[in-house]
Amino acid sequence: MIYRGDPLTGLKILGTGSCVPNHSVTNQMLETVVDTSDDWISSRTGIRSRCIANGDTNLTMAKAAAERAIEAAGIKNSDIEVVLCATITNEYVTPSLSCLLQRELGLNEEVLAFDINAACSGFVYALNTAHSLLQKTSNKYALVVGSEVLSKIMDFTDRNTCVLFGDGSGAVVVKLSRRMPFLFNSGARGDNLVLNCPAIYESNNPFSQNTNEKKAGFLQMDGSEVFRFAVESIKKSIMALLEKAQVSPEEIDHYVLHQANSRIICTAAKRLGAPIERFFMNIEKRGNTSAASIPIALDEMRTSGRLKRGDKLVLSGFGGGLTYGSVYMAW
Ligand code: COA
User: Fold this and answer.
1) Rounded distance, CA 322 to CA 186, Å?
2) pTM
3) Is 99 a catalytic site residue?
4) What value does the CA radius of gyration of the chain take, rounded to a whole number of Å?
5) pLDDT grade, residue 58 (50/70/90)?
6) What's the CA gap between 260 and 325, in Å, rounded?
Protein backbone atom coordinates (compact mmCIF):
# COMPACT_ATOMS: atom_id res chain seq x y z
CA MET A 1 0.00 0.00 0.00
CA ILE A 2 1.13 3.54 -0.69
CA TYR A 3 0.64 5.85 2.30
CA ARG A 4 -0.96 9.17 1.62
CA GLY A 5 0.78 12.21 3.06
CA ASP A 6 -1.87 14.93 2.83
CA PRO A 7 -4.47 15.22 5.58
CA LEU A 8 -7.81 14.51 3.92
CA THR A 9 -9.84 14.18 7.05
CA GLY A 10 -13.46 13.97 5.97
CA LEU A 11 -15.57 11.51 4.01
CA LYS A 12 -18.04 12.26 1.24
CA ILE A 13 -20.86 9.99 0.10
CA LEU A 14 -20.87 10.15 -3.70
CA GLY A 15 -23.72 7.76 -4.36
CA THR A 16 -26.21 5.47 -2.65
CA GLY A 17 -28.19 2.43 -3.76
CA SER A 18 -30.51 -0.12 -2.23
CA CYS A 19 -32.40 -3.27 -3.02
CA VAL A 20 -35.14 -5.02 -1.07
CA PRO A 21 -37.07 -8.16 -2.04
CA ASN A 22 -40.37 -7.68 -3.88
CA HIS A 23 -42.09 -10.01 -1.46
CA SER A 24 -43.78 -7.99 1.30
CA VAL A 25 -44.94 -9.92 4.38
CA THR A 26 -47.55 -8.05 6.41
CA ASN A 27 -48.30 -8.39 10.12
CA GLN A 28 -51.59 -10.05 9.13
CA MET A 29 -49.63 -12.70 7.22
CA LEU A 30 -47.54 -13.36 10.36
CA GLU A 31 -50.76 -13.82 12.35
CA THR A 32 -51.24 -17.04 10.35
CA VAL A 33 -47.82 -18.34 11.45
CA VAL A 34 -47.41 -17.37 15.14
CA ASP A 35 -49.67 -16.23 17.98
CA THR A 36 -49.45 -12.48 17.35
CA SER A 37 -51.52 -9.57 16.06
CA ASP A 38 -51.07 -6.57 13.82
CA ASP A 39 -52.01 -4.38 16.77
CA TRP A 40 -49.34 -5.91 19.07
CA ILE A 41 -46.57 -5.63 16.49
CA SER A 42 -47.39 -2.15 15.19
CA SER A 43 -48.05 -0.58 18.60
CA ARG A 44 -44.80 -1.90 20.09
CA THR A 45 -42.47 -1.56 17.12
CA GLY A 46 -44.00 0.62 14.39
CA ILE A 47 -43.63 -2.28 11.92
CA ARG A 48 -46.54 -3.11 9.60
CA SER A 49 -44.73 -5.14 6.95
CA ARG A 50 -41.23 -6.25 5.99
CA CYS A 51 -39.67 -7.55 2.77
CA ILE A 52 -38.65 -11.19 2.87
CA ALA A 53 -36.30 -12.84 0.38
CA ASN A 54 -38.10 -15.19 -1.95
CA GLY A 55 -35.47 -16.21 -4.46
CA ASP A 56 -33.29 -13.18 -3.71
CA THR A 57 -29.94 -13.91 -2.04
CA ASN A 58 -27.64 -11.74 0.01
CA LEU A 59 -25.36 -11.52 -3.03
CA THR A 60 -28.03 -10.67 -5.63
CA MET A 61 -29.39 -7.88 -3.43
CA ALA A 62 -25.93 -6.57 -2.48
CA LYS A 63 -24.95 -6.55 -6.15
CA ALA A 64 -28.06 -4.59 -7.18
CA ALA A 65 -27.58 -2.06 -4.35
CA ALA A 66 -23.87 -1.67 -5.20
CA GLU A 67 -24.54 -1.17 -8.92
CA ARG A 68 -27.06 1.57 -8.13
CA ALA A 69 -24.63 3.29 -5.74
CA ILE A 70 -21.80 3.16 -8.28
CA GLU A 71 -24.08 4.55 -10.99
CA ALA A 72 -25.29 7.33 -8.69
CA ALA A 73 -21.67 8.17 -7.84
CA GLY A 74 -20.93 8.57 -11.56
CA ILE A 75 -17.89 6.29 -11.50
CA LYS A 76 -17.02 2.95 -13.10
CA ASN A 77 -16.82 -0.45 -11.36
CA SER A 78 -13.10 -0.48 -12.13
CA ASP A 79 -12.65 2.70 -10.03
CA ILE A 80 -13.55 0.85 -6.80
CA GLU A 81 -10.47 -0.07 -4.78
CA VAL A 82 -11.93 -1.02 -1.40
CA VAL A 83 -15.03 -3.18 -0.79
CA LEU A 84 -16.39 -3.61 2.71
CA CYS A 85 -19.59 -5.53 3.36
CA ALA A 86 -21.25 -5.51 6.75
CA THR A 87 -23.28 -8.69 7.12
CA ILE A 88 -24.02 -11.56 9.49
CA THR A 89 -25.88 -13.63 6.90
CA ASN A 90 -23.39 -14.31 4.11
CA GLU A 91 -23.96 -17.63 2.37
CA TYR A 92 -20.39 -18.71 3.06
CA VAL A 93 -18.02 -18.56 6.03
CA THR A 94 -15.51 -17.97 3.27
CA PRO A 95 -15.41 -16.42 0.68
CA SER A 96 -16.67 -13.20 2.15
CA LEU A 97 -19.62 -11.34 0.62
CA SER A 98 -17.09 -8.64 -0.34
CA CYS A 99 -15.08 -11.14 -2.40
CA LEU A 100 -18.25 -12.50 -4.01
CA LEU A 101 -19.18 -8.93 -4.92
CA GLN A 102 -15.71 -8.32 -6.36
CA ARG A 103 -16.36 -11.25 -8.71
CA GLU A 104 -19.95 -10.29 -9.56
CA LEU A 105 -19.10 -6.64 -10.24
CA GLY A 106 -15.93 -7.55 -12.16
CA LEU A 107 -13.80 -5.37 -9.89
CA ASN A 108 -10.03 -5.27 -10.20
CA GLU A 109 -8.02 -8.03 -8.56
CA GLU A 110 -6.07 -5.41 -6.57
CA VAL A 111 -9.20 -4.43 -4.66
CA LEU A 112 -9.09 -4.73 -0.85
CA ALA A 113 -12.20 -6.80 0.00
CA PHE A 114 -13.35 -8.19 3.35
CA ASP A 115 -16.46 -8.39 5.54
CA ILE A 116 -17.30 -6.84 8.88
CA ASN A 117 -19.42 -8.56 11.52
CA ALA A 118 -20.88 -6.06 13.95
CA ALA A 119 -24.55 -6.97 13.42
CA CYS A 120 -26.77 -3.88 13.33
CA SER A 121 -23.79 -1.56 13.96
CA GLY A 122 -22.00 -3.15 11.00
CA PHE A 123 -22.59 -0.40 8.45
CA VAL A 124 -21.23 2.44 10.60
CA TYR A 125 -18.24 0.26 11.58
CA ALA A 126 -17.62 -0.44 7.90
CA LEU A 127 -17.89 3.25 7.02
CA ASN A 128 -15.30 4.10 9.65
CA THR A 129 -13.04 1.28 8.45
CA ALA A 130 -13.33 2.58 4.89
CA HIS A 131 -12.43 6.06 6.09
CA SER A 132 -9.33 4.75 7.89
CA LEU A 133 -8.24 2.60 4.94
CA LEU A 134 -8.63 5.44 2.45
CA GLN A 135 -6.54 7.68 4.70
CA LYS A 136 -3.76 5.11 4.99
CA THR A 137 -3.55 4.16 1.33
CA SER A 138 -3.59 5.75 -2.08
CA ASN A 139 -7.02 4.25 -2.78
CA LYS A 140 -9.66 6.73 -3.88
CA TYR A 141 -13.09 5.10 -3.89
CA ALA A 142 -14.58 2.64 -1.41
CA LEU A 143 -17.81 0.70 -1.77
CA VAL A 144 -19.46 0.13 1.60
CA VAL A 145 -22.41 -2.26 1.74
CA GLY A 146 -24.80 -3.41 4.47
CA SER A 147 -26.70 -6.51 3.41
CA GLU A 148 -28.76 -9.14 5.20
CA VAL A 149 -31.09 -12.06 4.63
CA LEU A 150 -32.20 -12.25 8.25
CA SER A 151 -35.17 -14.45 7.35
CA LYS A 152 -32.59 -17.27 7.02
CA ILE A 153 -31.79 -17.08 10.74
CA MET A 154 -35.32 -16.45 12.03
CA ASP A 155 -37.19 -19.06 14.00
CA PHE A 156 -40.69 -18.62 12.56
CA THR A 157 -42.14 -20.36 15.63
CA ASP A 158 -40.67 -17.66 17.95
CA ARG A 159 -42.98 -14.64 18.04
CA ASN A 160 -40.43 -12.69 20.11
CA THR A 161 -38.14 -12.36 17.10
CA CYS A 162 -39.73 -13.38 13.79
CA VAL A 163 -42.06 -10.37 13.65
CA LEU A 164 -39.24 -7.82 13.90
CA PHE A 165 -36.82 -8.50 11.07
CA GLY A 166 -36.69 -8.07 7.28
CA ASP A 167 -34.25 -8.56 4.40
CA GLY A 168 -32.47 -6.08 2.13
CA SER A 169 -29.26 -4.37 1.05
CA GLY A 170 -27.95 -0.84 0.92
CA ALA A 171 -24.69 0.55 -0.44
CA VAL A 172 -22.72 3.77 -0.62
CA VAL A 173 -19.66 4.88 -2.58
CA VAL A 174 -17.37 7.15 -0.58
CA LYS A 175 -14.16 9.09 -1.04
CA LEU A 176 -12.06 11.29 1.22
CA SER A 177 -12.83 14.99 1.23
CA ARG A 178 -11.05 18.02 2.64
CA ARG A 179 -14.24 19.98 3.22
CA MET A 180 -16.46 17.34 4.84
CA PRO A 181 -16.33 16.31 8.51
CA PHE A 182 -16.07 12.70 9.63
CA LEU A 183 -16.09 11.58 13.25
CA PHE A 184 -16.84 8.14 14.67
CA ASN A 185 -17.25 6.56 18.05
CA SER A 186 -18.13 3.04 19.11
CA GLY A 187 -18.46 0.62 21.98
CA ALA A 188 -18.77 -3.12 22.57
CA ARG A 189 -20.34 -5.14 25.38
CA GLY A 190 -19.20 -8.67 24.61
CA ASP A 191 -20.19 -9.73 28.12
CA ASN A 192 -23.86 -9.33 27.20
CA LEU A 193 -25.42 -12.12 25.13
CA VAL A 194 -29.03 -10.89 25.16
CA LEU A 195 -28.97 -10.85 21.34
CA ASN A 196 -27.18 -13.80 19.76
CA CYS A 197 -27.26 -16.31 16.94
CA PRO A 198 -25.22 -19.52 17.27
CA ALA A 199 -23.29 -20.62 14.16
CA ILE A 200 -24.15 -24.03 12.77
CA TYR A 201 -21.12 -26.18 12.09
CA GLU A 202 -21.86 -29.83 11.45
CA SER A 203 -18.66 -31.48 12.53
CA ASN A 204 -17.43 -35.00 11.93
CA ASN A 205 -14.26 -34.39 13.94
CA PRO A 206 -13.37 -37.75 15.55
CA PHE A 207 -11.00 -36.08 18.06
CA SER A 208 -13.58 -34.13 20.05
CA GLN A 209 -16.33 -35.37 22.38
CA ASN A 210 -18.89 -32.84 21.13
CA THR A 211 -18.76 -33.82 17.48
CA ASN A 212 -22.47 -34.41 17.02
CA GLU A 213 -23.69 -31.38 18.92
CA LYS A 214 -26.06 -29.45 16.66
CA LYS A 215 -27.41 -26.04 17.52
CA ALA A 216 -30.24 -24.31 15.77
CA GLY A 217 -28.75 -21.31 14.00
CA PHE A 218 -31.61 -19.04 14.97
CA LEU A 219 -31.46 -15.54 16.34
CA GLN A 220 -32.40 -15.33 20.03
CA MET A 221 -33.17 -12.18 21.95
CA ASP A 222 -34.25 -10.73 25.26
CA GLY A 223 -36.27 -7.84 23.81
CA SER A 224 -36.60 -5.63 26.86
CA GLU A 225 -32.87 -5.90 27.70
CA VAL A 226 -31.98 -5.00 24.10
CA PHE A 227 -34.39 -2.08 24.23
CA ARG A 228 -32.71 -0.75 27.37
CA PHE A 229 -29.23 -1.19 25.89
CA ALA A 230 -30.31 0.55 22.67
CA VAL A 231 -31.71 3.72 24.21
CA GLU A 232 -28.79 4.08 26.63
CA SER A 233 -26.07 3.47 24.06
CA ILE A 234 -27.60 5.71 21.36
CA LYS A 235 -27.66 8.67 23.71
CA LYS A 236 -24.18 7.99 25.12
CA SER A 237 -22.66 7.47 21.68
CA ILE A 238 -24.28 10.46 19.97
CA MET A 239 -23.67 12.89 22.84
CA ALA A 240 -19.96 11.94 22.93
CA LEU A 241 -19.74 12.35 19.17
CA LEU A 242 -21.44 15.75 19.09
CA GLU A 243 -19.29 16.99 21.94
CA LYS A 244 -16.20 16.03 19.94
CA ALA A 245 -17.65 17.71 16.85
CA GLN A 246 -18.65 20.77 18.90
CA VAL A 247 -22.12 20.65 17.42
CA SER A 248 -25.37 20.72 19.42
CA PRO A 249 -28.15 18.11 18.87
CA GLU A 250 -30.44 20.84 17.38
CA GLU A 251 -27.87 21.63 14.70
CA ILE A 252 -28.10 18.15 13.18
CA ASP A 253 -30.35 18.10 10.09
CA HIS A 254 -30.89 14.33 9.92
CA TYR A 255 -30.51 11.54 12.44
CA VAL A 256 -30.33 8.23 10.57
CA LEU A 257 -30.65 5.63 13.29
CA HIS A 258 -30.68 1.88 12.86
CA GLN A 259 -34.32 1.00 12.19
CA ALA A 260 -35.07 -1.49 14.96
CA ASN A 261 -38.14 -0.03 16.60
CA SER A 262 -39.93 3.32 16.25
CA ARG A 263 -40.23 3.50 20.05
CA ILE A 264 -36.44 3.24 20.40
CA ILE A 265 -36.04 6.09 17.90
CA CYS A 266 -38.67 8.27 19.62
CA THR A 267 -37.09 7.67 23.04
CA ALA A 268 -33.66 8.52 21.63
CA ALA A 269 -35.02 11.75 20.15
CA LYS A 270 -36.52 12.74 23.48
CA ARG A 271 -33.35 11.96 25.43
CA LEU A 272 -31.22 13.89 22.96
CA GLY A 273 -33.63 16.81 22.98
CA ALA A 274 -33.81 16.85 19.17
CA PRO A 275 -37.04 17.21 17.11
CA ILE A 276 -38.48 13.84 16.08
CA GLU A 277 -39.05 15.13 12.48
CA ARG A 278 -35.28 14.98 12.00
CA PHE A 279 -35.23 11.22 12.65
CA PHE A 280 -35.81 9.34 9.41
CA MET A 281 -38.05 6.27 9.74
CA ASN A 282 -38.95 3.59 7.22
CA ILE A 283 -39.42 0.81 9.76
CA GLU A 284 -43.14 0.63 9.00
CA LYS A 285 -42.53 -1.17 5.70
CA ARG A 286 -38.95 -2.46 6.08
CA GLY A 287 -38.74 -3.92 9.61
CA ASN A 288 -35.29 -4.33 11.10
CA THR A 289 -32.79 -5.16 8.34
CA SER A 290 -29.73 -5.04 10.65
CA ALA A 291 -26.58 -3.84 8.87
CA ALA A 292 -28.64 -2.88 5.80
CA SER A 293 -31.01 -0.50 7.56
CA ILE A 294 -28.87 2.67 7.59
CA PRO A 295 -27.69 2.50 3.95
CA ILE A 296 -31.23 1.65 2.79
CA ALA A 297 -32.46 4.68 4.75
CA LEU A 298 -29.78 6.90 3.19
CA ASP A 299 -30.77 5.76 -0.28
CA GLU A 300 -34.48 6.35 0.36
CA MET A 301 -33.66 9.79 1.76
CA ARG A 302 -31.52 10.68 -1.25
CA THR A 303 -33.95 9.42 -3.88
CA SER A 304 -36.88 11.18 -2.22
CA GLY A 305 -35.01 14.49 -2.29
CA ARG A 306 -34.75 14.78 1.47
CA LEU A 307 -31.00 15.41 1.57
CA LYS A 308 -29.36 18.71 0.61
CA ARG A 309 -25.62 19.20 0.11
CA GLY A 310 -24.08 20.37 3.36
CA ASP A 311 -26.78 18.86 5.61
CA LYS A 312 -25.31 17.62 8.88
CA LEU A 313 -25.90 13.91 9.48
CA VAL A 314 -25.63 11.60 12.44
CA LEU A 315 -25.76 7.87 11.68
CA SER A 316 -26.11 5.55 14.65
CA GLY A 317 -26.22 1.75 14.87
CA PHE A 318 -26.68 -0.60 17.81
CA GLY A 319 -27.29 -4.30 18.23
CA GLY A 320 -25.67 -7.72 18.39
CA GLY A 321 -22.28 -8.04 20.03
CA LEU A 322 -23.51 -6.09 21.83
CA THR A 323 -22.15 -3.21 19.80
CA TYR A 324 -22.96 0.40 19.10
CA GLY A 325 -21.41 3.10 16.96
CA SER A 326 -22.17 6.54 15.55
CA VAL A 327 -20.86 8.69 12.74
CA TYR A 328 -21.00 12.47 12.31
CA MET A 329 -20.64 13.61 8.70
CA ALA A 330 -22.20 15.91 6.13
CA TRP A 331 -24.17 15.16 2.96
N1 COA B 1 -47.06 -10.94 19.56
C2 COA B 1 -47.77 -10.97 20.70
N3 COA B 1 -47.19 -11.05 21.93
C4 COA B 1 -45.86 -11.10 21.96
C5 COA B 1 -45.06 -11.07 20.81
C6 COA B 1 -45.72 -11.00 19.57
N7 COA B 1 -45.04 -10.96 18.41
N8 COA B 1 -43.77 -11.13 21.16
C9 COA B 1 -43.73 -11.19 22.49
N10 COA B 1 -44.98 -11.18 22.98
C11 COA B 1 -45.40 -11.22 24.38
C12 COA B 1 -44.32 -11.82 25.26
O13 COA B 1 -44.42 -13.23 25.27
C14 COA B 1 -44.65 -11.22 26.60
O15 COA B 1 -45.72 -11.96 27.14
P16 COA B 1 -45.80 -12.28 28.73
O17 COA B 1 -45.88 -10.91 29.36
O18 COA B 1 -47.05 -13.05 28.83
O19 COA B 1 -44.55 -13.01 29.03
C20 COA B 1 -45.19 -9.85 26.24
O21 COA B 1 -45.55 -9.89 24.86
C22 COA B 1 -44.18 -8.75 26.41
O23 COA B 1 -44.87 -7.57 26.15
P24 COA B 1 -44.30 -6.14 26.46
O25 COA B 1 -43.64 -6.12 27.80
O26 COA B 1 -45.39 -5.15 26.22
O27 COA B 1 -43.21 -6.03 25.34
P28 COA B 1 -42.21 -4.84 25.12
O29 COA B 1 -42.86 -3.55 25.34
O30 COA B 1 -40.92 -5.12 25.82
O31 COA B 1 -41.95 -4.99 23.56
C32 COA B 1 -40.32 -5.74 22.01
C33 COA B 1 -41.30 -6.14 23.09
C34 COA B 1 -39.56 -6.96 21.54
C35 COA B 1 -41.08 -5.14 20.84
C36 COA B 1 -39.34 -4.67 22.57
O37 COA B 1 -38.80 -5.14 23.79
C38 COA B 1 -38.23 -4.35 21.63
O39 COA B 1 -38.46 -3.82 20.57
N40 COA B 1 -36.97 -4.59 22.02
C41 COA B 1 -35.85 -4.33 21.18
C42 COA B 1 -35.70 -5.44 20.19
C43 COA B 1 -34.81 -5.07 19.06
O44 COA B 1 -34.98 -4.03 18.48
N45 COA B 1 -33.88 -5.95 18.74
C46 COA B 1 -32.96 -5.76 17.69
C47 COA B 1 -31.97 -4.72 18.07
S48 COA B 1 -30.85 -4.46 16.80
Assistant:
1) 11
2) 0.96
3) no
4) 19
5) very high
6) 15
